[in-house]
Amino acid sequence: MDVTSANPKPKTFICVECGSYSALKFKKYPSGAIKLYQCVTCGDVVDKYIEYDSVMVLLDILLHNSKAYRHVLFNVEVKVLRQLLVLSILCDTYMRWAAFHQFCFDDSSLSNNWHLVLELQFYKMLGISSLELCINICVTSVIVSFANRKKMSFSESFQSIPKSLLMSSYGKLLALAALVWNPDNSYWYLVLTKMFVITSNAEAIKVISHRTIAESVAYVACGVLAGFLVQDYLLSTKLADWQFTKPA
């Protein structure tokens, strides 16, 4: 009986169990029946998540399951990277702008003209957030590429690492929920959310680079620190010079 493949290209997919390359995820027979392909290295099914509901996959990702990360990062075609990039920048921008608005202004004294000033600050926060994310991704990509140069080429690293960082930053949406629903008591929630995003990034880097979790956390921490230093410099040198006076 003839068997047609899901994708004829070799080394296209990754076994979610052992991380080995596989040419197929499943076999599709002329009758329409589908059989999951078995990994030639470990003997398990290459990608069991093909049969899973998306909610189950999401739960495994929230639990930092390496198998679920391999499924999402290697075996699923992602067409929303640009949307994820915009969403990540907007989340960071809104969090900074909300904190700036909360600590610097009294809403009861704002006039129509003053709201234009707040809008200007939002655009400035947007530029800072964009630059910070760019530096974070670039620094992390360079460090991981250099540390993993014997296993992956630089071109492969710079293609896969930004994608993994963006896809694993979904936790920023949780921070937005805290600011919208409970803005007065959201500090520790935001701290925990930031830690969750860092651990998610580290898990994604571990899957991509085949390094230990400790090494992956160190790589991600370097990128986060670099972005934070740039943000802190811009906020301290630029925002400190912005003189705001409440309208009469």
Description:
There is one protein chain. The chain has 248 residues and is mostly helical. Helix content is 60%, strand content 5%. Strands 1-4-5 form a 3-stranded antiparallel β-sheet, with no helix packed on it. It has a two-stranded antiparallel ribbon with strand order 2-3. A hairpin with a 6-residue loop joins strand 2 and strand 3 (21-22). Helix 3 crosses helix 4 (112-147) and helix 4 (112-147) packs across helix 5. The longest helix is centred in the middle third of the chain and has 36 residues, at 112-147. Residues 1-10, 106-110 and 240-248 have low confidence and may be disordered.
As laid out across the biggest beta sheet, the strand order is 1-4-5
- What shape does the CA trace take? elongated
Ends distance: 84 Å
Proportion in helices: 55-70%
- The count of β-strands is 5
Taking pLDDT < 50 over at least 5 consecutive residues as the criterion, the unreliable ranges are 1-10, 106-110, 240-248
Average pLDDT, rounded to a whole number, is 79
Spell out the helices and strands N to C. Answer: EEEEEHHHHHHHH
Give me the oligomer status: single chain
Q: How much strand content do the residues show?
A: under 5%
Structural class: mainly alpha
Cα-atom radius of gyration: 22 Å
Sheet with most strands? 3 strands, antiparallel
* Number of H- or I-type helical stretches: 8
